[in-house]
Amino acid sequence: MMMPGSPEEIAAFEKIQQRLAPLFQAVANDPRKPHSVVVIPSLSLDKAELEKISGVHHYEERLLYMLMLLRRPTMRLVYVTSQPLNPSIVDYYLQLLAGVPGNHARKRLHLVSCLDASAIPLSQKILDRPRMQERILEAIPDPQSAHLSVFNSTALERSLAVSLGLPLYATDPALWDLGTKSGCREVFRQAGVTFPDGFERLRSEDDIVGALAKLKVMHPGLRKAVVKLNDGFSGEGNAVFRFEGCPETESERPEWIRSQLPNLRFEAKTESWPTFKEKYAFMGGVVEQWIDGEGKRSPSCQCRVNALGQAQIISTHDQVLGGPNGQVFLGCTFPADAEYRLDVQNDSFKVAQILAEKGVVGRFATDFVSVQGDNGWTHYAIEVNLRKGGTTHPFLTLKFLTDGTFDPQTGQFLTPTGRPKFYYASDTLYSPAYRGLSPDDLVDIAVYHGIHFHGASERGVVFHLMGALSEFGKLGLVCIGDNPQQARFLYNKTVQVLDTETKRLHGEREAKLQENSDA
To answer: Are 115 and 261 found together in one domain?
Structure first.
């Protein structure tokens, strides 16, 4: 095995990657060509940042929408996880394959598990298990017609691609910096799109103090600023600094700012200034002005650079944000508001072209903060998520279920009959009352109340993250409708149904306990 990051490994990786474009072209030209995809849903991200997310080890399930690729009769899929998937969850996805016999699809699906619940990234677990790598390769009839699909691409995924001898349909890890909070500000500058005033490539407490002081000079009326870790995830690496009480005299500001840093308002509940400062020194970060305005929105545009290096717009969303300062990703609506979605697409395409020129491959999203003024909307690009993200699986779920297409001229998704589709999606539907519900319970409830996705009408609810339900009371869902109101109605109805059902079940249990006690 080659040393990770060695010149030999990098050269081998570059050679393997040369197979990706011809494979992409061959499958595009002939959809019936036998093709294998090895799905590695490893969250190869900062361990401390991942620990902030409830039930994060179940996020390996977010890529299960890829099982719907089995609708292609010559497709073979290998899905690798840290722990075995609940069979009911697998059955749930396979039954969504309209027109494909279940046995036919199951024969072409190979599930492989490390039987390892540790917090080590899945890609590392596979690298540590040579026999598992052999089993993965044995499940692939022709390695020359196969590729790896991952959640995000790091040095671990590069090592795994080399070890398996399979090309990686994702960005070369050498370009990782383009997706950091510092790197994307530099990309925005090159693309010529509007982004918040601020400073990147910061490391120390002194850097933060200096940047905040300069921002206050640039914008005397500034009330807040955002301090971000370079590799924060879903907004959990962000903190807000407040300027209330800031001295009018510039010379007095640095020490006052320093004294206020322990009072940063962190998005993550478990974060504190000592731990944040330590992470900041390790991974670096940025300081940006806080964008204020009436009716502030947070649109996002999902893009792709295909294996031929062509930049494409995939979809737009309005993000649903929460947390102490409204910076934590909770879900999204599709498509983004008609008033501005084409403007967001236009700016995002400029960013995508720069990234394509730099060699980026695969899916990514550019997030914005948008405010409305007298002359219309102003959109500030704030970050690039150079990986699959929270808007990836809802959109591809819709696409695979309906065989529809995204129309970049209108920013809408159209079914083959030309009917537009909309959805409301969330990764964070949570209630302590949901704990103890199994995936089978969830499906029973959905079918009984008629909210489950129906292929004929092409509307209803599709669930994900079902493995997190019993232990954490948390799940995800995509609510697909014929208009935005219907999609949101389905979400609200699902919440109401689950709350009512769990209340009923708890009531029955309490009555049973009381009955036994009386007896």
So the answer is: no
